[in-house]
Automatic annotation (TrEMBL):
<dbReference type="GO" id="GO:0006096">
    <property type="term" value="P:glycolytic process"/>
</dbReference>
<dbReference type="InterPro" id="IPR035482">
    <property type="entry name" value="SIS_PGI_2"/>
</dbReference>
<dbReference type="GO" id="GO:0006094">
    <property type="term" value="P:gluconeogenesis"/>
</dbReference>
<comment type="similarity">
    <text>Belongs to the GPI family.</text>
</comment>
<dbReference type="GO" id="GO:0048029">
    <property type="term" value="F:monosaccharide binding"/>
</dbReference>
<dbReference type="GO" id="GO:0005829">
    <property type="term" value="C:cytosol"/>
</dbReference>
<dbReference type="Pfam" id="PF00342">
    <property type="entry name" value="PGI"/>
</dbReference>
<keyword id="KW-0324">Glycolysis</keyword>
<comment type="pathway">
    <text>Carbohydrate degradation; glycolysis; D-glyceraldehyde 3-phosphate and glycerone phosphate from D-glucose: step 2/4.</text>
</comment>
<dbReference type="GO" id="GO:0051156">
    <property type="term" value="P:glucose 6-phosphate metabolic process"/>
</dbReference>
<dbReference type="InterPro" id="IPR001672">
    <property type="entry name" value="G6P_Isomerase"/>
</dbReference>
<dbReference type="InterPro" id="IPR046348">
    <property type="entry name" value="SIS_dom_sf"/>
</dbReference>
<keyword id="KW-0413">Isomerase</keyword>
<protein>
    <recommendedName>
        <fullName>Glucose-6-phosphate isomerase</fullName>
        <ecNumber>5.3.1.9</ecNumber>
    </recommendedName>
</protein>
<dbReference type="GO" id="GO:0004347">
    <property type="term" value="F:glucose-6-phosphate isomerase activity"/>
</dbReference>
<dbReference type="GO" id="GO:0097367">
    <property type="term" value="F:carbohydrate derivative binding"/>
</dbReference>
<keyword id="KW-0312">Gluconeogenesis</keyword>
């Protein structure tokens, strides 16, 4: 009922679609990562691949006329902790702009001890890191606090810095 009756600017799917168009056509982002932090949603990215890429994967408009803009991004992703050891490095420190949609349940359907709170802490840490990054000064301070020598800091610090401001 909400989608049928709400004004366009209050429809979350419309807002997300417009953000996707913005990143794809105005920022040159060719891909979008869907990163659910729940194993029950492990096929969620594939679902969106089918829905988005099939629906928008056309070079013509509804009238059959060729378009002069990008019609859709490449959608991909994995559950959060799987992806962290596969492609998060590229998202955080790489040269490509990769907008990410992080999705997490407020309540776990499979509560195991303190697993869900730890997973949510990780979820929020990843989104915060993408938004705000980590400066060289902060990296150096953390290394010195951990007892690293100046030589170790000089050798390793640049590999731990990331700029932030990643969507």
């Amino acid at each position: 009922k909400h989608f049928a009756e709400a004004p366009l600017e209050q429809k979350l799917p419309v807002i997300l679609a417009l953000i996707g168009i913005w990143y794809n056509n105005f920022h040159g982002a060719e891909t979008e990562a869907i990163l659910p932090y729940d194993q029950y949603m492990h096929r969620f990215a594939a679902y969106f691949q089918q829905g988005n890429m099939e629906s928008n994967g056309k070079y013509v408009d509804r009238g059959g006329n060729p378009v002069d803009y990008q019609t859709g991004p490449i959608i991909w992703g994995e559950p959060g902790t799987n992806g962290q050891h596969a492609f998060y490095q590229l998202i955080h420190q790489g040269t490509k702009l990769i907008p990410c949609d992080f999705i997490a349940p407020a309540i776990s359907h499979n509560p195991l001890g303190d697993h869900h709170p730890k997973l949510m802490a990780n979820f929020f840490a990843q989104t915060e890191a993408l938004a705000f990054g980590k400066s060289r000064e902060k990296v150096e301070a953390e290394f010195f606090a951990a007892g690293k020598s100046q030589e170790e800091v000089n050798e390793l610090a640049e590999f731990k810095v990331f700029e932030g401001n990643r969507p």
